[in-house]
Amino acid sequence: MDFDLSGRVVLVTGGSRGLGAAMVRAFAEHGADVVIASRKGPACEELAAEIRDRTGRRALGVACHVGRWADCDALVERVYGEWGRVDVLVNNAGMSPLYPSLAEVSEELFDKVIGVNLKGAFRLAANVGTRMAAGAGGSILNVSSIAAVQPSPAEIPYAAAKAALNNLTIGLAQAFAPKVRVNCIMPGPFLTDISKAWSPEMMRDLKRRIPLGRGGEAEEVVGAALYLASDAASFTTGSVLKIDGGLAFAPA
């Protein structure tokens, strides 16, 4: 299997931490030049500097709020203006803020969750995918969540957005074929910085319910990401790959 990404340009949203940062490092280690985008510009540039120093690859950090179409458009123009193309787009940005009850979910919170998890992914995929299809082709990788297929009461707006992202993946795979492949990773609980807010009770419950008996480490998403981004997945499009230690659909 050829996971080589030498000379390719990979754009990762939500790329400054967690699963996004793990993917950015892996892409660079396999030869790619990387664009790291998130709302926190300094964090993006800090990781970009690390990538440049450690791998010698080109790396660019860009502040971008993907819930705003103007920001998405500016990000695309910046990358194409500086590097001329995007070969792999990874829509990884996401958010799932807590709320006291469903009735207390404000319109602002709902719109923000849909914007970051779905609207931005659509806009970026539409812009970049259209350019890929008109050019040399490429790969788009969406990052969903098992909440899309097994939502809990604490994450209903987020789960709805991620379910739509799964649907978007399949539609875009057809829209941009045959030159662009569009796939989706559907992670379960990963022990990134977000997990630091999980209570001991939640951690014990997850370990009990996850068939593999633990949460995932960020680096454990890398194999799937490299596969779907690279030529190793040349006959794979419209797929949704669950990476959750077996949690989704497991007996309670």
Secondary structure elements and pairings:
Elements: E1 9-13, H1 18-29, E2 33-38, H2 41-55, E3 59-63, H3 69-83, E4 88-91, H4 107-134, E5 138-143, H5 156-175, E6 180-187, H6 200-209, H7 222-229, E7 240-243
Parallel strand pairs: 1-2, 1-4, 2-3, 4-5, 5-6, 6-7
The figure for the number of domains is: 1
Top-tier CATH class: Alpha Beta
Shape: globular
The CATH homologous superfamily: NAD(P)-binding Rossmann-like Domain
Main beta-sheet strand count, sense and barrel state? 7 strands, parallel
Helix fraction by DSSP (H/I, runs of at least 4):
40-55%
User: If helices are DSSP runs of H or I spanning 4 or more residues, what is the number of helices?
Assistant: 7
- Gyration radius (Cα, Å) is 17 Å
As a percent range, the share of strand residues is: 15-25%
Let me know the number of strands.
7
Identify the CATH architecture.
3-Layer(aba) Sandwich
Biggest sheet: strand arrangement: 3-2-1-4-5-6-7
What is the CA-CA span between the terminal residues?
Answer: 37 Å
CATH fold assignment: Rossmann fold
- Low-pLDDT runs of 5+ residues are none
Polypeptide structure, described:
By secondary structure, the chain is of the alpha/beta class. The protein has one domain (9-238): Rossmann fold (3-Layer(aba) Sandwich), CATH 3.40.50. Helix content is 43%, strand content 15%. It contains seven helices and seven strands; from the N terminus they run βαβαβαβαβαβααβ. It has helices at residues 18-29, 41-55, 69-83, 107-134, 156-175, 200-209, 222-229, and strands at residues 9-13, 33-38, 59-63, 88-91, 138-143, 180-187, 240-243. The protein has a seven-stranded parallel β-sheet with strand order 3-2-1-4-5-6-7, with helices on both faces. Helix 4 runs parallel beside helix 5 (156-175). The longest helix has 28 residues, at 107-134. The N and C termini lie far apart (37 Å).
